[in-house]
Amino acid sequence: MLRIINRVLLGLLGLALFVLGGSILVTGLDLPRHWGFELPGWWPFTGPDDVLLSEADRTRYRGDGWWWPTVFAVLTVLLVLMLWWFLAQLRRRRLREVLVDSGDGAGALLRGRAMEQVLNAEAESLDGVSRAQMVLTGRRRTQPEAHGALLLEPHAAPADALGRLTAEALAHARDSAGLDRLPAEFHFRAVRHSADRVL
Prior knowledge:
Blueprint: H1 2-28, H2 31-35, H3 55-59, H4 67-90, E1 97-100, E2 108-111, H5 112-124, E3 129-137, E4 145-152, H6 158-176, E5 184-190
């Protein structure tokens, strides 16, 4: 859902900036005079000396009692929406429960933390993985996703670790929860170590 909101917001913002920037560029460079075409009557700018807001436009509503409360209310709503959007980028919805098909039609609930602990334990048992931190995100009735950060030993090959992690730990978690698929995203880091001396 957050990805859809991000795409819609970025698309609308990009379209608005493109239209506004294009209209300013066309009149600012005086392209109608240079290229010999006329702008429609509703075009907001008429020439390179035009301003975005005239003095009459800027001061039109200052004397009205509703003007400043409306301005502050709109700015407050915009600020709250921007803060919500910003915080939503930082927060991933951690999965509390996974709905498991028990075969009787009712289903069973598996605690998300329990599944994360099993994933961590199985990942850390793999050769070359020093530490694993798995988090399940999503909602109970939607497809869960696994996000993990793995600390690899110096001798570990990331491709091998990823292959075994996918074929073993993720496959076991997916099969035990009765999921069709379990999308995952992993970040690998290497354990810091001093260089080996060759004598």
